[in-house]
Amino acid sequence: MDYERLRKIMVEKQLKPRGIKDPKVLDVFAKVERHKFIPPESIANAYADYPIPIGEKQTISQPYIVALMSESLGLSGKEKVLEVGTGSGYQTAILAELSKEVYSIERSPLLTEKAEERLKKLGYTNIKIKTGDGTLGWPEEAPFDRVIITAASPGVPEPLLEQLSENGRLILPKGEIFSQVLTLIEKKTGKIESSDICACVFVPLVGKYAWKEKLN
Predict the structure, then answer these.
(1) I want to staple 152 with a disulfide (CB 3.0 to 4.6 A). Which of 117, 160, 186, 202 is the partner?
(2) pTM, rounded to two decimals
(3) Is-catalytic flag, 195?
């Protein structure tokens, strides 16, 4: 299968027509081998325009949503990024290409292990991953210039706001269990500004400052 060609089609047919404009983001999506983050049974659909289950009741988001969240962070290559929800590690790899360093938290030990192995094999050296409650953040490594939450939360977990640096950006799907709005949070002169991007549906974020275990 010609995966390079499929990546180019993904960029031209899924991303550009929907308004993804940042050349750096488009280049990274044409480069990062998404099929290497997909379970073997679904690899034929690696570049399809929908989310794919990866086990542990989690999914890898559709390419457009990953691109939209990445572009919305406004990365220049110098940022320290916190990712809540490593999953397969695909979004992690995209962030690692676009920023200086990525700290990623995954609640599933199995997914953490698989993502670490996968990303190491792909040669990434600017990523640190740990297993834990992502809603608590990573206080010993704070502050972070950018925070990305890749699961649905009823609100913005307070520890993540506290760990966001001045002039920082945080993006998350915020709302109800089955329906959310992709929301961009910006911290300016100590004040929090919020803007809605689009409707979306993500799996629930489970943790002390989000949904409880029984909801997952």
Answers:
(1) 202
(2) 0.96
(3) no
